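tool_call predict_complex ligand=3-isopropylmalic acid
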Amino acid sequence: SETFKVAVLPGDGIGPEVMAEALKVLDAIEKKYDVQFERRHANVGGAGIDLEGKALPQTTIDICKAADAILFGSVGGPKWESLPPDEQPERGALLPLRKIFGLFCNLRPAIIFPALTGSSTLKESVIEGGFNLLVVRELTGGIYFAEPKGIETVDGVRRGFDTMLYTEPEIERITRVAFDIARKRASKVCSIDKANVLSTSVLWRQVVERVAKEYPDVALSHMYVDNAAMQLVRWPKQFDVLLCGNMFGDIISDEAAMLTGSLGMLPSASLAEGSFGMYEPSGGSAPDIAGQGIANPIAQILSASMMLRYSFGMQQAADAVDAAVEKVLDQGYRTGDIYQGTSGETRVNTVEMGDAIVAAL
Ligand code: NAD
Ligand code: IPM
Ligand code: MN
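tool_result ok
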């Protein structure tokens, strides 16, 4: 049987709680298909700081390097917010992981499951018939990474600064991914920018236009990010692929997540060239509900499904996981974040939701 090496990085807050459910799903996949997932657990984020003195310990990096893919929970929380910024879980671990492994492409698919149309905050008339949009977010460039950045005092005045910078190759690379994927979907790309203000966006638009000429079969449109934020809640069905830089993609994907009923539903794949990837829920460590065992594990489980699909080439198994999630939602299982209180719904906790999905498999 085939063996894949998975680095398991649960992290902080709800990370370990939802990770446990994703691992149960991997157990079920091992039984159902002729495959083995050799898992190595490693500390990351606040857990890395508390247990090994660093948000991203070298042992964790080594375990990731030896793996075929990384399954990541989430990092961060109030406990570590007063540390120097570069030592905190987000800037000390998550961003470096993305950089070290060249994870330039972040896919965040926002799909409304038919059973959850009532859990979306949008009117049924706006979302009936469903929508299926994919945020393609550039993940290793832009204002998140460019230097200089910092806080300094000049003439007695403190100031903070970041640099927004994109190179033409960076834009071209993520644009090609967006167009290649669009071809396998509804063949529409909407590129999100702020070209009326930002130079990076002016270049972004030029590069996207140039690359688009090689994809005459894909319809390209451009939209300013402020309008896009509005259009997403006005009429989400107009979108297929949303191509975004790092920061706009971060913001737009949380908004897209909520259209599906909850941030706890939205998985993501952070991909390098080739088959290596890190698979992480789009949401965070949710300190407000951590430790209560009530978080929605579906984003983590669907992230594991994306790992099967994109890093291991296991389309069938990935489809099976997605179908199991859809089935339990049809059966009415709901964690608190997607619970409406209508008849036919059963309110469940994190473990019960994981169990139901495993049973459906
Ligand atoms: P968050 O995504 O953690 O939470 C936002 C809201 O969504 C909260 O009300 C939370 O309860 C809810 N939510 C998120 N995931 C959920 C789930 N699976 N089930 C049910 N509800 C869920 O964002 P935040 O509160 O702005 O940030 C908290 C911490 O998480 C911060 O330290 C932040 O930096 C970090 N963060 C980490 C990641 C990551 O590791 N990938 C992503 C986003 C935020
Ligand atoms: C995400 C998160 C991260 C990001 C933070 C925690 C650094 O919000 O994965 O969306 O902004 O990329
Ligand atoms: Mn985010």
